[in-house]
Amino acid sequence: MTMHRTGEPAAPPADDIRAPTLIGSVQRALRLLEAVGSHIHGATAKQLARSAGLPLGTTYHLLRTLTHEGYLRRDDGRFYFGASVDGICRADTRQSECTDLRGRLARLRDELGAAVYHAVYEDGEVRMVEVFSGPAQPAVEEWADFRSTAHAHAVGLCLLSQLGTEERLDHLSRHRPAALTPSTVGDRRAVLRRLDAVRPTVPVLERQEYALGAVCAAVPITVGSVVATVAISLPVEQGDRLGPAAVRLRRLVGAMFPAFVG
User: Fold this and answer.
1) Phi, psi (5° rounding) for residue 77?
2) How far is CA 261 from CA 36, 120, 211, 227, 247, in A?
3) What confidence tens digit (pLDDT) does each residue in 156-206 have?
4) For the chain, which end, N or C, has fewer CB atoms within 10 Å of the first or last residue's CB respectively?
């Protein structure tokens, strides 16, 4: 008698286990794309049929479909990869670059001995992309929504400083400044003056304005149309490290600028 644990479904009978469904037309189309890739100077339908091991009639049908969808293009009777394949290649490159960027930011955490934050300003809101922390580099707890408290933390101040006046006013009208700690600048006009004083080459520093017990620094990512920042945080007990760490952050992130454009 077959036994199974309570709460677990019984295994299906052996004769009821089926192989996964494979779609033959998709397999043939992929073989045809592989065949196109093996011909650097393009190939005719007959050449592709031979390379892919497909009947000529099937090859013609697939070529018409793949050309219509932009995966292939035809030029002087020969077939080449089309724009849709180029798009897939670019997406793969972007994914690889994103993975590389995450690795760099993780190394930045270890090198600076501080939690690292990557954030962007998109569609009128602050968006935290990723946080890199560890047992020795604890991250600041998001006790108040980062999106609505940009006036109080280095990440938000750095992002808002990269916006034009109208965009800043719009943001602060939707997310009104408020005092989160005794150190927070909660007056709207004072926040605007502070943003006007920010210089692109100088890190934005913040000491216990968002969260008690934490000090932060942020540097802007000023490449193309990107509005982004990389920031660090330290426990307030290590506050004397913030200035020197911010200077190093600025220098190290500067060498990474191209990786943030995607």
Assistant:
1) 80, 0
2) 31, 11, 31, 10, 22
3) 999 999 999 999 999 999 999 999 999 999 999 999 999 999 998 899 999
4) N
Sign of CA dihedral 207, 115, 191, 211: negative
Q: Give the right CATH number for 21-81 from 1.10.10.10, 3.40.50.2000, 1.10.530.10, 1.10.150.20.
A: 1.10.10.10
CB 155 within 8 A of CB 126: yes
How far, in Å, CA of 32 to CA of 59, rounded?
A: 8
Round to whole Å and give the CA distance between 232 and 154.
9
List, in order, residues 6 or more apart from 111 with CB less than 8 Å away. Answer: 248, 252
188-197 vs 165-174: helix crossing angle, rounded to 10: 150
pLDDT digits (tens, 9 = 90+) for 92-118: 555 444 557 888 899 999 999 999 999
pLDDT digits (tens, 9 = 90+) for 238-252: 999 999 999 999 999
The CATH number corresponding to 93-260 among 3.30.450.40, 3.30.365.10, 3.60.70.12, 2.30.30.100 equals: 3.30.450.40
**Which residues touch 180 (CB under 8 Å, ≥6 apart)?**
144, 149, 152, 186, 209, 210, 211
